Amino acid sequence: MSAEVHTTPSQHMVAVAAENQAVGQRRIDTAAATPRNRVCGWLVAANLTAFLIGPKRQVTMMLDPVRIYATAIYIASIIIALFCAVYVRNKLLTLLAIVLEFGALIWYSASYIPFARAMVSKLMLACFDTEF
């Protein structure tokens, strides 16, 4: 006669997590770590703001003279990162493009906050002895 074990869903999830951890360094979802998905995440984030304020207003704000260079660098780095991840398949180049994306996004976001770009420039000067 076998004893039936009744577990709640949360107990089952804990047991499954413990079992996966016991197996070792196995990755459960390898697709989540690919550079292609990270780049697509940046595209989704850009589209979410367009959803909140409207696509026409978003494009108008992106093409504002204060933000045009950051927008161009951001879009170019997305294209470069996608190209490096999908066609070239070079992780180092993809990572560099993603870092460039992140920097352009910070610079773009700083344009909405008064004196934020000056603060970022001073921070870069203090950290890297460089001014943007």
TrEMBL record:
InterPro entries from the UniProt entry: Vesicle_transpt_Got1/SFT2 (IPR007305), Vesicle_transpt_SFT2 (IPR011691)
Main location: membrane
Gene Ontology BP annotations: protein transport; vesicle-mediated transport
Topology term for the membrane: Multi-pass membrane protein
A Pfam family of this chain: Got1
Recorded superkingdom: Eukaryota
Membrane-spanning parts: 66-88, 94-115
Keyword Mitochondrion assigned: no
Keywords: Membrane, Protein transport, Transmembrane, Transmembrane helix, Transport
Subcellular location: Membrane
Gene Ontology CC terms: cytoplasm; endomembrane system; membrane
Role: May be involved in fusion of retrograde transport vesicles derived from an endocytic compartment with the Golgi complex.
Family the entry assigns: Belongs to the SFT2 family.
Protein name: Vesicle transport protein
UniProt organism field: Salvia splendens
